[in-house]
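To: structure desk
From: M.T.
Subject: fold request, one chain
Message: Could you run this one when you get a chance? Sequence is below, nothing fancy, just the single chain.
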Amino acid sequence: MDLTVSGRVAEFATSVSYDDIPAEVIAAGKRFIYDSIGCGLGGVETHDCHIAREALLALGGKPECTVIGTGDRTDCVNGALLNALQIRVHDYNDIYWQADPSHPSDILPAAFALGEREGRTGKELLVATALAYEFEMRLCEIAEPGIREIGWHHATLTGFVSPIAAGRMLG
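Reply: Done. Structure tokens follow.
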């Protein structure tokens, strides 16, 4: 048994099932997913996202996932980036501020892209979403006196937690 922190996180993240998650958490996860897609639709026509989409789609890539609201398909890396930009461009996506600010929905585009590529179910996406929110919020709460005060930005947490949700979608 791997007793490192990363080993325990991986063990937990791979062992959770849909049936382990309380109904109210599933309902919240659905709201977060719908909200993120809505924000992504709102970002489709922004100037910044047009520029990014034009540049990244010009690179080509295997059509593994869909760019929200466009019908465009690209590789998972560029698709996740474009969807993340569209979700965040207006800054209307969710915020968690019990201990310090973060935007856990920033994690979801990686899960969306890989979930589509891998043919995962909505239930599997909900498990990845629950894991993403759980880990992001816990990291906010353990940073004393706060994320910004220890010299990090909340986007740093996205870099730590996205692999958990993405890994879950990869199986």
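Reply (cont.): Strands lie at 65-66, 73-74. Let me know if you need anything else for the meeting.
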